[in-house]
Design a protein that fits this description.
Length: 135
């Protein structure tokens, strides 16, 4: 009985796109929306749940495989841009904690100086100009 159902489902899915990273992401969005809907009971969120659910299954059962594939590619590119942005943001935040960024008064070259060294002479690596700073 169960095997037969599985077989039928496999036949149904033949030539259809199926699950991908974008749909998995949509299912997570759906989960968050369903939880938000449970607590907030806002009608717009309820409608949005149905919209996301519908769109997700539309993609999974779609026969236009090249189109879905290119959507997924776009999604992955966007996702890596977003995660890259947050990684850079974290890195520059930790740099701000450990380093001072000074600008050379002569050529405006940015110079990174470790914090907590007291008064120091900074020598610009670009123009050789020397100036005193507190770090
Ligand atoms: Zn300089």
């Amino acid at each position: 009985m169960f095997n037969e159902l599985r077989f039928k489902f496999a036949r149904f899915m033949q030539g259809r796109y199926g699950m991908d990273q974008f749909s998995r992401f949509l299912s997570m969005v759906l989960l968050v929306l369903v939880a938000a809907n449970f607590f907030l009971r806002v009608r717009t969120i309820g409608l949005l749940c149905w919209a996301v659910l519908f769109y997700m299954y539309f993609r999974i059962f779609s026969r236009n495989i090249p189109k879905r594939y290119s959507e997924n590619r776009k999604f992955l590119a966007l996702q890596s841009r977003v995660t890259g942005f947050f990684r850079n943001f974290r890195r520059s935040a930790s740099q701000a904690r450990d380093y001072h960024i000074y600008k050379c008064p002569q050529c405006a070259q940015k110079i990174r100086i470790p914090r907590g060294k007291g008064k120091i002479i900074v020598r610009c690596p670009k123009c050789g100009h020397e100036f005193q700073k507190r770090s």
